[in-house]
Every structure is written in C-alpha cells, then in structure tokens.
Amino acid sequence: MNFIEELKWRGMIHDVMPGTEEQLQKEMTTGYLGIDPTADSLHIGHLVGVMMLRHLQRAGHKPIALIGGATGMIGDPSMKSQERKLLDEETLRHNQEAIKKQLSHFLDFDSDAPNAAELVNNYDWMKPFSFIDFIRNVGKLITVNYMMAKDSVKKRLSGTSGEGMSFTEFSYQLIQGYDFAYLYKNKNCKLQMGGSDQWGNITTGTELIRRMYGGEAYALTCPLITKADGGKFGKTESGNVWLDPRYTSPYKFYQFWLNVSDVDAEKYIKIFTMLDREEIESLIGQQKEAPHLRPLQKRLAREITVLVHGETEYEKAVEASNILFGNATADALRNLDEATLLDVFAGVPTYEVSRDELHNGIKAVDLTTEKAAIFPSKSEMRKLTQGGGVMINKEKLSTFDQLIDDSYLLAGKYLIVQKGKKNYYLVIAK
User: Fold this and answer.
1) Which of 15, 23, 58, 80 does the annotation list as catalytic?
2) Which of 110, 227, 364, 405 lies in the 20 to 30 Å Cα band around 124?
3) Active-site residue among 38, 91, 102, 286?
4) CB atoms within 10 A of CB 116
C-alpha cells in the first residue's frame, strides 16, 4: 500500500513536502502527529489526524502519537483568536492516559512488530530544559523574521481584537519545532503530520532538524474538515462530539454520523472509515440511485461507531434509534440505560407526576389529562385510546381507565407516552 496515494484518493492531503513520497517508498519511516491533551477525551475533530496515523501503520510505517504535555501548558496560537487555558501536570497526565486508551482502538501499540505504535509526551523532554538552555541551544537557530512570516502568527498579530500575542504563545512553534528535532534524533522520526493550520509549525521543525543535525525531514498536512453548509464539523448544539461515552453517548455519536448530509457523507466515508475504494464507490452509486435509503450514512455511522465503541454499543444505538423511527418493542425501551433514554427523548415535552400518587396507581385518562396535560380533554383521550392510538412505554392502552402504577416506570422514574404515531411525551415521577 502506498501511503500518499491512499491519502490522496481519500481527500486527506492538503500539503506535502517534496520528497516525502520518495522517503516513504525508500524505507519504513517513523512519522508523528501531535495531540494537545486539553481534555481527557478526544473529539471527532481529532479523528482525521488519528486516521492518518492508522493509515501510516497499515502501510508498514511506524506511527508516534505525541501528547503535547508541554505545549498543552502553553496553547497553540494557530488560527485561534484567544489564548488557551493552561493546564497543570496532574491534569495533563490524567488526560494522557485517557487519550492513549482511546487511541488503542485505532493503533496497534502492543505488537512486537517493528512498526508498533508509540505514545510519547513532550513534557518528558521539555521539563528538565531550563529557559536559558532553550534560548541558547534552540532559540538562536531560528530568526524572529522566520517566525513572524508564518501565517498563524501573522493572522493573530493583524487581528482586530487588539490583544496581540503573548511571548508564551509566540514561542509555541519553536517548542513544537524542537519536538520534531528531538524525535528525529532519538526516534529516527522523519515525518510530521497535522492539520493544514499546522504547516508553519511543522516546517519550523524541518528547518530546526536541518540546522541542528544537517538532517532532512518531511511534512504532510490534511485539510481542515468542513461541512457542506459551512457549519463547523464535529459541533452540535450541545458542543463537541466526544469519543468518551461519558460526554457523548454511543447513541448520540451514532446519530451524528447518521444525520450528516449526502454531500458530507460521501466525503466523510473516505476519511473516517477503512473501507476500500471499490466498496465506497459502490455505496456512492447506491446513494445516487436511492438517496432516501441513506446507504452512505448508515454504513458510515456503523463503521465509525463500531471502531470507537464496539459492536454491542453500535447495536444498542441502532435499537435506540428504532424506538423513535421504527417498530421497536417495549422490551427495547426497557433495555435502555437512563442516559440513552434521555438522549433518545431529548426535546420531547416533559411532565412531572407525584411518585407517591403513582405508587397507588393513576387511571391512564387522569394521568394524561389532569396530571400531565398531554390531552386537552378526557373525551379526546378516550376516543384516541379506542382507536388504538395511545401507548405507554410502547404498549397500547387496552382501556382509557387502565391503572398505571410505579411498576411501569423505566429506569425507576420515567414513563413514555405516545399519542398517535409521532408524538412522544416524557413523564417523570418525582
């Protein structure tokens, strides 16, 4: 497998330094990508870089994931209008361990193969560095003119905010450049990858390697992922789409991919899955023939959800989706954990009832009119029930005065009332 060709047809190359492809064809090459550990989970914005590392390993080369413990303490100015919050060492170490666990879904860290993946933290070699040593041994090699010419710096300095840039942030590209030089010397690392906003920082690294060691190193960047409608990729109304189920449930994660546009699905399935060209082209053909069946979105959502959360969680997410959009059973509803249940019914009208009253039992007609104003009148409720149009927890009410008690509660506190085919209501016992 040719790594560069693979990335090209997948639309994952923005810039590549001349000679990179030749280097990769010549020998097994070590390449790295940096991740700032600003949280104890990756989000899907990180996935393009992670997939690049995955393809690199698959092509027989050695990937290094660099956790930017030192740079995470500073914050990268690239394409950002404000400085980042600085983190302490304990938080950084915690975040590092959590990120490694997630990366192991994508990379093989444990094999005996010469191209087994490695995880490193730049804090380990930056921590003992004194400021004097750094500016004497590294700082003198790169001119201020060279650093000022980088787009990431120019954009901040010419910004309208008037805040400018601190020396701390200005030094970021020098520290990132030194990372590359350190890995070149200690790990024989000759390639750095990143997003297109990182080109300036990466090429500073190749320049340092040239000046410090007379060596040759290479750079490759991927495009920053966008949405067809111009919105920011990986963001929802509630914020980032995370890989950790504590922050984004597998159901929400699955739904994110399932609901992307046709245009985006065609782009994303090349970037975020390992499906080969032939299979992807077949799926694109199926989408054009029957777009309403959404074969691209379904396959994309399946592949990436299984990769991140495993087969079982994927199946649960599909089952949960069917509750609203398919013919799910009452058992499927009862099998939902509380977090997923709340995700599935997020945004539906909510009512509260007394747990004590429910314990003694409430007639369905009273529950859905007096206790929770789901129906405007008892006569309307009776009429719809007689027509088989009222369900509690996915089971049709047999009579309008059926007694509902706390044995009906899902996760010990919820009732799902369905009026007609599409109208859902969440009743919470308190």
Assistant:
1) 80
2) 110
3) 38
4) 14
